[in-house]
From TrEMBL:
Keywords in alphabetical order: Cytoplasm, Methyltransferase, S-adenosyl-L-methionine, Transferase, tRNA processing
Gene3D superfamilies noted in UniProt: 3.40.1280.10, tRNA(m1g37)methyltransferase, domain 2 (1.10.1270.20)
Protein name according to UniProt: tRNA (guanine-N(1)-)-methyltransferase
KW S-adenosyl-L-methionine (keyword) present: yes
Length: 285
């Protein structure tokens, strides 16, 4: 099954960007995921193709218009629902508008066959979540990323200016996700981040050897430190235990390091981890 991603943006030329190279780029080429970069402006219906307006109540900046956003989201939902199992897509998208710069792997609909087709097997498209990237959204977690990666795909909506007209969230059942307590100039970098995190978890993307299950956040802890040759560098050596060949001892050392690093660096995670441990211990009794 191909993981379908659609990104609604005023800057489709930013996609696939960094996702066109390395693991994600290869996976895109192999059809493990597909990408539609949809120009929001194509859903404005006035002659100036207006996507924003001044904030009600006054104040600085501009707000993305709810009617334009709603049409773009409806289009993306329909487009995904219609994706035939072959992955050969009917050419009805406004993506071929002159605004869309189509980088080599940007999945304008006409190029879906180029990534090996696949589609979504005709099923599950109705359940594709719509996520708007917003600073006030629910912080993105590895657990949410895992859920998304296990699903049929995602529709991401990138804000610009002051952000979205509030009515879009309820009006189109749009979830809000934040990628950190920072303010970006637009949702595109956040969307790239979210997609990157999902794509590396898709079956066959990382390869059998590294399933990602030992990594930071997967068990509520930060990952233990890594070392590689040379054994000594500027007077600093690799911990002896890692050279012992004793796998049980190594696992124990790694677990301890993992816990210690989490406690010191991320007290918030540590508290949650300890709380979960206490809860599961009392549940087991
Ligand atoms: N006025 C907004 C506020 O104060 O919350 C900030 C708008 S920001 C300049 C423009 C767009 O960037 C947002 O609509 C959102 O799509 C995106 N963005 C900015 N920071 C983000 C973050 N931490 N996580 C996800 N998206 C973000």
């Amino acid at each position: 099954m191909t993981f379908q991603a659609a990104v609604l943006t005023l800057y489709p030329e930013m996609f696939p960007g960094p996702l066109g190279v390395s693991l994600a780029g290869r996976a895109l080429g192999e059809g493990k995921w597909s990408l539609d970069a949809v120009q929001i402006r194509d859903f404005a219906n006035d002659k100036h193709r207006t996507v924003d307006d001044t904030p009600a109540g006054g104040g600085a900046g501009m707000v993305l218009k709810v009617d334009v956003l709603a049409r773009a989201i409806d289009h993306a939902r329909e487009m995904m629902a219609q994706t035939p199992p072959s992955g050969l897509l009917p050419d009805t998208s406004p993506l071929h508008g002159e605004d869309l710069v189509d980088p080599p792997h940007a999945m304008g609909r006409g190029t879906a066959d180029e990534v090996g087709g696949g589609g979504v097997g005709g099923g599950g498209a109705g359940t594709i979540p719509v996520i708007a990237l917003t600073p006030r959204g629910k912080p993105l977690t590895q657990a949410r990323v895992r859920e998304l990666a296990a699903g049929p795909g995602v529709i991401l909506v990138c804000g610009r200016f002051e952000g979205f007209d509030e009515r879009i969230f309820e009006g189109r059942q749009v979830e809000e996700v934040s990628v950190g307590d920072i303010v970006l100039s637009g949702g595109e970098c956040a969307a790239l981040m979210l997609l990157d995190a999902c794509i590396r978890l898709l079956p066959g993307v990382m390869g059998a050897a590294s399933s990602g299950h030992e990594e930071s956040f997967e068990n509520g802890l930060l990952e233990y430190p890594h070392y590689t040759r040379p054994q000594e560098w500027e007077g600093r050596t690799i911990p002896q235990v890692l050279r012992s060949g004793d796998h049980a001892k190594i696992a124990e050392w790694r677990q301890r390091q993992s816990e210690e690093d989490t406690r010191l660096r991320r007290p918030d995670l540590w508290e949650r981890h300890v709380g979960a441990r206490v809860q599961s211990a009392s549940g087991a009794r």
